[in-house]
Specification:
By secondary structure, the protein is α+β, with helices and mostly antiparallel strands. It has 13 helices and 23 strands. It has 2 domains: 10-26 and 237-438, Enolpyruvate transferase domain (UDP-n-acetylglucosamine1-carboxyvinyl-transferase, Chain, Alpha-beta prism); 28-224, Enolpyruvate transferase domain (UDP-n-acetylglucosamine1-carboxyvinyl-transferase, Chain, Alpha-beta prism). The structure holds shikimate-3-phosphate (S3P).
Length: 439
């Protein structure tokens, strides 16, 4: 159990439409990577619009404890004095990655090739998540990693010189891909990963921007060892995974119209936009431009009548973090929605298939939990609500159920919301400013 914090319980109720403009916090995936590559490069990297959520702060703390100077200039602006690929020093204590799977898996890749001892741990959720998926390829590179039973954290890493690998990944995972590529940076020769489907490609893009030799052929991506990584200035795009909450809220609440500015629209991340468009959502990408080597756009969204869909398998990796909020859209759409082939959702910050089935059912939705997904019968008239539901300490479950509460006849109380701080610390004030009643 997480400790109970004062704002650990939030209540959502139906009210006025959402209106206005907002900038969402920086992308979590890109923020982690900017700290890591900034630390491993030579020179001073400046990061703007960094996500100051708990997950990224854990990554910053880990690199600080390995001797990297990281200075906060002002909100979201950080300066990292890179130490180079061989400049990290042994941390004198356990590295606590909190709730962050990205921090733990990517750092495992970095640490496997460093000539020192380190221990990675995390909160109760992270200590239940599968780490074998990174231990297996890193061990094939020669890494020495010990874990609890079934590959669970804490992980003990005795870094050593590695050998390159050409690894075929059993599941599409950007974290596994990134762990191998980061281990490959400090390894002589070329290391490669073959994915079953394309997962988010922020690591590849950012490595290229820092000067590494990255080659992609279809679903295979390779990096050459020992590149000269040169410090960069990175502007982190707004996180589409955070924008998803006000965006779906605006689609669902009659009379709403929002402009979400500077949101990352990397094609490996826009699966939710594609799914919602198939459901009939009115979402426009305006002023598409570049930031930090990534495409960004202003998303204009207005209330829309949605209809249920069958989720196409090829969109699943591109929308992997958005299924909790997608299920809320499905619950308020006309007709049935079927999501299958998404068993990965069971090993996220919570078992998201189970958490959404339980949560939506409590709100009055006709939902069936499947082994690898959910079947939802939507009701565009709104939901009964009037219940207290649990987030299972998962930030995205908490925010999704609160958005659902905006279309319930009676208030919805969501318990254990503290982890919203991991990815979207300004969620509650931002939603309130746009007109949502979440207190
Ligand atoms: C992430 C990859 C995804 C995603 C996670 C962030 C990343 O995980 O769910 O929130 O930053 O690389 P998987 O690699 O396990 O799919």
């Amino acid at each position: 159990m997480q400790p109970t914090l004062p704002n650990d319980t939030l209540t959502a109720r139906a009210g006025t439409p959402l209106q206005g403009e907002a900038t969402v916090p920086g992308d979590k995936s890109i923020s982690h990577r900017s700290i890591m590559l900034g630390a491993l490069a030579e020179g001073e990297t400046v990061v703007q619009h960094l996500l100051e959520g708990e997950d990224v702060l854990r990554t910053i703390a880990a690199f600080r404890s390995m001797g990297v100077e990281i200075q906060r200039d002002t909100a979201g602006i950080y300066r990292i004095q890179g130490v180079g690929l061989d400049g990290l020093r042994e941390p004198d204590d356990v590295l606590d990655m909190g709730n962050s799977g990205t921090a733990m898996r990517l750092l495992s890749g970095v640490l496997a090739s460093q000539p020192f001892f380190s221990v990675l741990t995390g909160d109760a959720s992270l200590r239940q998540r599968p780490m074998k998926r990174v231990i297996t390829p890193l061990s094939q590179m020669g890494a020495r990693i010990i874990s609890r039973e079934q590959g669970k954290a804490p992980l003990v890493i005795q870094g050593t010189e590695l050998i390159p690998i050409d690894y075929q990944m059993p599941v599409a995972s950007a974290q596994v891909k990134s762990a191998v590529l980061l281990a490959g940076l400090n390894t002589a020769g070329g290391s490669a990963v073959l994915e079953p489907e394309l997962s988010r490609d922020h690591t590849e893009r950012m490595l290229t921007a820092f000067g590494a030799e990255v080659t992609r052929q279809g679903l295979r991506v390779a990096v050459d060892g020992w590149p000269n990584l040169l410090a960069q200035t990175i502007e982190v795009p707004g996180d589409i995974s955070s924008a998803a909450f006000p965006l779906v809220a605006a689609l669902l609440v009659p009379g709403s119209e929002l402009l979400l500015q500077g949101v990352g629209v990397n094609p490996t991340r826009t699966g939710l936009l594609a799914l919602l468009s198939q459901m009939g959502a009115r979402i426009e990408q305006r002023q598409v431009r570049q930031a930090g080597g990534e495409p960004i756009a202003d998303l204009h969204v207005s209330h829309s009548s949605l209809r249920g869909i069958e989720v196409p398998a090829e969109l699943i990796p591109r929308a992997i973090d958005e299924f909790p909020i997608f299920c809320v859209a499905a619950a308020l759409a006309e007709g049935e929605t079927r999501l299958t082939g998404a068993a990965e959702l069971r090993v996220k910050e919570s078992d998201r298939i189970h958490a959404m089935a339980v949560g939506l059912q409590a709100l009055g939705v006709a939902v069936t939990e499947l082994a690898d997904g959910l079947h939802i019968i939507g009701n565009p008239e709104g939901l009964p609500g009037g219940v207290t539901v649990d987030s299972f300490t998962d930030h995205r479950i908490a925010m999704s159920l609160l958005v659902a509460g905006l279309r319930c006849r009676e208030p919805v109380v969501v318990k254990r919301c503290a982890n919203i701080q991991t990815s979207f610390p300004s969620f509650q004030p931002l939603m309130s400013r746009l007109g949502a009643t979440i207190v």
